[in-house]
Amino acid sequence: MVTTDLRPFFNPKSIVLIGASERPGSIGGMLAKHLLEGQFEGELYFTNPKRDAVFGHKCYQNLEVLPKDPELAVLAIPAKFIPAELKNCAKRNIHHAIVLSGGFSEVGNYELEEELIKVSRENDIRVIGPNCAGIASTHTKMMAAMENTCIPGGLSIVSQSGALAGSMMLRATYEGLGIDKWISFGNASDVEEAELINYLAKEENSPTKVIFLYLEGATHGRKLIETLKEVTKLKPVIFLKGGRTAIGNKAAMTHTASLGGDPKIYKSVAKQTGAIWVESLDEAFDTYEVLSTYLDRGGKRVAIVTNSGGPGVLTSDNLALHGLELNQPSQKLRAQLEDLPAACPRENPFDLLGDATPERYELALRAIAHSGEYDTIITIMVPPGDADINGVARKIIEIANEEHQTAIISCLLAGEKVEQAIKIMRENGLPSFPTPKRVAWAAYALYKWQEIKKRA
Amino acid sequence: MVTTDLRPFFNPKSIVLIGASERPGSIGGMLAKHLLEGQFEGELYFTNPKRDAVFGHKCYQNLEVLPKDPELAVLAIPAKFIPAELKNCAKRNIHHAIVLSGGFSEVGNYELEEELIKVSRENDIRVIGPNCAGIASTHTKMMAAMENTCIPGGLSIVSQSGALAGSMMLRATYEGLGIDKWISFGNASDVEEAELINYLAKEENSPTKVIFLYLEGATHGRKLIETLKEVTKLKPVIFLKGGRTAIGNKAAMTHTASLGGDPKIYKSVAKQTGAIWVESLDEAFDTYEVLSTYLDRGGKRVAIVTNSGGPGVLTSDNLALHGLELNQPSQKLRAQLEDLPAACPRENPFDLLGDATPERYELALRAIAHSGEYDTIITIMVPPGDADINGVARKIIEIANEEHQTAIISCLLAGEKVEQAIKIMRENGLPSFPTPKRVAWAAYALYKWQEIKKRA
Asked: Are A281 and B435 in contact (CB < 8 Å)?
């Protein structure tokens, strides 16, 4: 009976890297380096018949001579040796293997992949890969991955494309966004997307708050649909489909040799299952950033508070395209805004005018946030002249932390003048988005997730 | 007879700032500072009845006592004094005035704006404003603007929203993109958008290569259409409409008190006149960046050269959505690629695989660029492990500069690892875009401009 427990892929007691190396650019070299740099806290074994040590870490001739049975094997040896080595893994009671090596179905070598599948089934070994970029698990310091530039956080990435996942890790880190688990599952010869997101959603005490799924073609369509329906009751799943046009789909089939099916199906799969459909990396990241702040806030009623009409107008346009509402304030709320300068319209978008001070933002934001009339406030700020933009950032943080149920998200534009303010906000866990379009998307993502939760 | 020559707004022989001040946050203070910092090379006069000097620069009591007639007046005094001061301008033979002061039609004071219009007509004074953020003209060092963080270049911005224009200036500078003229025209009491873009298109020896127009509502619709038809025969006009949805349009009417008309009209105006319709600031900037590099290249036939399948697939999707073509290479071109590793598919997208070296990019890019089979090449690079991404950047530059007609644009993703390579490319005048979606848009913008030129 093959195990269904995926825990050893992410939190193994011990690991063996098969094919550890110091050769620059080699998979075995990168993996050895990343596993060591990650300072994995369990036992870490290396094997390579040609070496006694790799980067100063003891290296064994082969699996047979290891002092103990490792729990997880990471394979970075040429494809043709994989089936035999999986048999050796079985002899050491290993039931979980990550196979990074390429040279299987993705280059037309279906026979070798069939053999890999056969051997792994016969020997009760669960396999991630082959042709994948590995797994990084920041909270367990398990960096069996081609890329290791990441910080711990609440996003988990499940990707059919290793390089795309790699670029997402680099971008997340660049933007200060943390990752829990990062999984490139490659050819999905055994463990596939549905099983992975199911694990991420149900793992006990999981640091994963939001799941991102990049797929070019589902390997088990029906299973994916059933799993998504369940998983989205627990955690948001951001879904980006590579190959959603006929031309893109053709490129995807060349890439992963997956049979994508009708590219139009996937959008309705997302709708039907409660996954959050995104059409770009920006949308994916912005969804993660906003949901990692506000899993329980947001909705259809949005207020814009701005010191500049133009960006307010562009944001309104984008909110409207997403079906969100810019309701007008009640008489009561208007009255609470009476201390604003006479020239400020008491209307949504609330334009605080170009000379708006932190105190003016404070007055407006506090009244609107506590009014209960809006689910989300979008705070827009452009820095005219020597405006105190850092002061406004601090007021936003202060009011966001008060007792109310309103999500406050921001768009600070643009350039060097707002860098410091964005940093202040991020350090206080508040998201800021660089353009009217993107902040409106973030408001939509909050609304969308609340709608999905209602349905669940 | 009122002059139609707008030259003194951008390249005046002499300027007077009326209402110069040192007060922090005041318009007169910011303008004085920016005009001085700009090191304007003509005569620069300040007036203010309460001061003898402003920031160490001599300040006169009033216009009457100036030693010479200035050519351009910049007014930063309270709205109610503007009509009388325009009469004083006329006495000093001033025929061009920028009125930054707010407090006119935008706050419901239509009467005062009518008076301003009447006085300026009776006295042959062309007015930009009121309620505007001024004009910056980098090549003539004329910084009569609320924002002065900019570097000289080929983009001119014409905006109904001053703060939006300000944020665009800040962003352009942050991204290393240069500006020629930056014009916030505010309430458009006299000079309006059509006259301005006409000037930018026809100015002799103009540094302006690309015009960006942000509009919430046209003041003279028919004139705008006729002007756009003419202007787009000469230079690309990027057109962003604030208020293209009913909700956004309502916000726009509050903002600039302009009657936007049916928001849907504007997109067809763009189509009909050859303006490049954009729906976000990212699209606007990316269009400028790509056209500032390739005004005479690009087209429908696109090749993707990548070291990573996933981003290639996402780019294919976006190209398909824009109606671009990913044709397959001829047998001849395939033969020229025979020295690539066997595992690289000789198909478009051309996947050079994760271990692609600068030399592999060189081989593929050179063959494709010189083949004549593609109008644009999109080079995608993710940095797996310790890939030599700077080396790839240098090869891209080398091949882009060879003798062929193919536009080469890039998408380097993501984060810190590619920063240096993007910098190297930018220093060599080559654009790079951060995501598959944005690089595909850039390819579309090139195609679009070539189509517009064919029609003209």
From this structure: yes
